[in-house]
User: What shape does this take?
Amino acid sequence: MPRSRQPQAKYAGKKPIALWLALLGMISLGLTASLPALAEEGHWGSYGGSPGGGHYSDLTQVNATNLESLELAWEHRSGDFRLPIDWDIDASLTLEDGKRAETQTSLQVTPIVVNDTLYYCTPYNRVFALDPVTGKKLWVFDPGVNTDDIYLTNCRGVSSWQARNPSGAACDHRIFTGTLDGRLFALDAVTGKPCEDFGFEGQINLRQGLGEHIASEYNITSPPTILGDLVITGAMVLDNRRTNSPGGVVRAFNVRTGELVWHFDPIAPGTQPTLVDEGQRYQKGTTNVWSIMSVDPQRNLVFVPTGNSQPDYFGGHRGGLEKGLDYYSSSVIALDGSTGEVVWNFQAVHHDIWDWDTPAQPTLYDVVVDGSPRAALAQPTKMGHLFLLDRLTGEPLFGVEEKPVPQGDTPGEYYAPTQPFPVMPKTLVRGTVSEETAWGLTPWDRNACKKIIRNARWEGIFTPPSTQGSITYPFQGGGNNWDSPAIDTQRNIIVLPTNHIAGLMTLYPREQCEDIAGAHPQEGTPYCVTPELLLSPFGLPCTPPPWNTLDAIDLTTGELLWSVPLGTTRDMAPFPFWFFEGTPGLGGPLVTASGLTFIAGSGDYYFRAFNTSTGEELWRTRLPTASAASPMSYRGSDGRQYIVIAAGGHWSGKGDAGDYLRAYALPAGE
Assistant: This one.
């Protein structure tokens, strides 16, 4: 199969905003904050920089005084990308020749650097090892994944494990990677060859125990987590397909042998999985862990962010609020690293019927509260709520209020009477939706937005989906998503991007579903659903810009320090309509000890640097295409600080796919 596909003529030129937007979803704490130290100063040994995340680099060579001297040091291209053959919000649509529609690839990877080697994965699950100073390929491993039937193709990263007492034999240092066809590989870090003692010839089939399921709906997209001699992974389960989708079990394996050590099946305490298929071991339809996990090696804890139970927008079958199927959904959970048993659970959304996952890596930091040190955890959510919790107990550091929320009347559904709201920080999605706040370029499209809002149901955040059509704000893509946060440990600042656009969610009775274009099936429920964006006839959001901001919060007070628009419409609309600021995107920040925040993560093709203390934009450079990845930084063997960003578009794009991994550094000798 070819590694890349060139765009057809109909995809040439600028992509309209509507096309780009329409699939995007698919603390007073104390005095000082710090993250767990990196394994080696100036290296980047885990996806988030450290086992507990944070996207923080202790390097200071690149600073505000020399930013303008940054130059492209090297570029690596894998050839692993595809542009869409056809494009529609419903993956089940087919072309005239019978071939299923495909979305483009999304290069969401953040590399790691260990022992003077850079490792990263492509959307086709090939793993590359590069010289981090030159970008020269050292080896490449191809697991042979057939991506023809995979709707969303991406790989966010790989993980590294090293033996405490190296023997000098192969696989003393192992690179672990998951695949879109549900396998987990252990590779020798020096050669890229599979470690033959791990599982069967270097791999484990993660589909074992799931029962019967559609293979293309179960994929590994985020890097596995390493804790001691365990490699731990969840999986992404495609949204909105059916009630009997594969379950979201989390499993821990021995890094040397591949033997299953423990599993966490996310069902309510005291209940047993319902097993209906031969060989099935785990409950179907449960919440899955598609995003990035964190570990605290000192305390032997694994922190797990969960999505919501299947399908997303109807939950009448889940079994009630107390012991239902979504007992652990939309939560952050602390697991015992030795057994997988739950230590504590904090649920950000009760009975989630909005697809408001807990999408981001739980980020660990330390604070001093009332003169006493406390271990803490920051958890962003798709609602724009940032929960700051005690890492040992899950108790909120600032407090959480359970507030009454709108109730629905959809037959067969039930609703949580209250939802948790953090006292501090205040929600990052600060607007509302109304006819008065409707936005448009002209009076005509503004009036069209007013009419849509008037005819839809909207009673504030947590307005439930309905057959009338309900506005969801923020929409199912966030708020915040998997790409955040970053914590500056010197300045006690947490930085994260926030999207500010609304959705329109409509349920349709099952007998109407065949006639509803673009409906997500939600098989096994009485309703299909159309999760759309709240857009004007021009394809612009009915909520006012900015539609994407970069936000910074003071961890010592919980107050918002600054919020600035992120991105422009430069690469989303034809000239002269480049002046809108704050365009939706994915891709998180990197913060450095020199006081800089680097981020792409918007609708345009720019990579930017901001002053972490003030939010002032200090630098930008043009990328070959859009970036939906988070940058990282390391010190090379030549003594230079490198800053690396992947640019390859997002699956919601329209022809901006690519395969660029770019490293920036100051000129040699500076």
Q: What stands out?
A: The two ends are 45 Å apart (CA to CA).
